[in-house]
Write a structure and sequence with these properties.
This protein is α/β, with parallel strands linked by helices. Helices cover about 15% and strands about 30% of the residues. The strands form six sheets. Strands 3-5-8 form a three-stranded parallel β-sheet. It has a three-stranded mixed β-sheet with strand order 4-6-7. A two-stranded antiparallel ribbon has the order 1-2. β10 and β11 form a beta hairpin. It is elongated and about 55 Å long. The relative contact order is 0.11. The mean pLDDT is about 90.
Length: about 180
Amino acid sequence: IDFDFIIESLLPDQCAQGGAPLQVGEMAYDTIIVPGCETLRSSTLERLEAFAAAGGRLIFAGSAPKYENAVPSERGIRLFAGAVRADFTKEAVLEAVAPARLLDIRGADGGRTDNLVHQLRRDGEDRWLFIAHGQMPYNKDIPMAQPVQITLDGEYSVVKYDTMTGEIAPMEAAVPAARP
């Protein structure tokens, strides 16, 4: 999952106020995940409260923050109670962010791949998807094909840029049935 890590101490300088989407610097976020933490700053709580109130998807992974500025407070607990809650596990977080995901990569067995990394970026009207192996293969001298199914939210004309050969060619794609 492609994500950005927002540093809480820098948030007030990068995000003047909360809202949905949450504007942090040049980026705008529709979904925010707060990892299990004990304390949050008042400035962070203010922005997260405004984000949630404006319809942003706020997810807490793990436990509720019990402190505000390191002082006991109910504020984080109230925010936690009204948010999407998930265990702090890979599977639970993936399930919680599923409605916001633009991309899913699955292997031939239908399960999510665990050895590929990707980056999806927008450039004007175009989107660029880069996929690469994120782990060293068992034997790097013997290339192994890995059939995958890549699902993107939206409709696209797909072009493959093969970084090994330099070949650029249209790629077969299908539009799946609408999601229930």
